[in-house]
Amino acid sequence: MAGPSSRRRVDEAVDTLERADRAQARGDLDGVARLLAAAEQQVGSLADDDPGDPRHAQTLGSLLYRAGEVAITRGRPDEAVAVLRRAEAAYTRLGAPSLIADVRLRRAHALALTGRAASALVDAQAGTLTWMDRWSG
Q1: Could you tell me which of 3, 23, 111, 130 has the fewest CB atoms within 10 Å of its CB?
Q2: Model's pTM, two decimal places?
Q3: Model confidence at 1, in pLDDT bands (50, 70, 90)?
């Protein structure tokens, strides 16, 4: 069971993510990126401290997936590629192939925007094959 310190840290991470939501509603994508980076540190620390709790890996992967899309929208596809690699690592820790497939497809988009067509194709193919395997079996 989580102690008071852990609960406080979770509350702080939730607050940071809620502030990111409000920044996004205002159209402040720079603020969203800054807050998601802070949340990555907070949730990443929770995941490292309690690797047996899948909620931390799920939240980390989700916020990084979102940060990747924000980076793409801000015109920073190289940043998106790096963030989405971290999202893939979080979802790999979780053991969630369909979420990994989504990350790879989003990263393929970012890679295409950087002009790395061959790398984009590899990620797009890997993501698509994962989905095909999931739905064919």
Answers
A1: 3
A2: 0.91
A3: very low
CA-closest candidate to residue 56, choices 99, 85, 91: 91
Cβ(74)–Cβ(44) under 8 Å? no
Burial 41-71 (b: 16+ CB within 10 A, else e): ebbbebbeeeeeeeebbbbbbbbbbbbbbbb
Residues in the chain: 137
For 78-118, what is each residue's pLDDT tens digit?
Answer: 999 999 999 999 999 999 999 999 999 999 999 999 999 99
Neighbours of 112 (CB within 10 A): 16
Cβ neighbours around 26 below 10 Å, total: 10
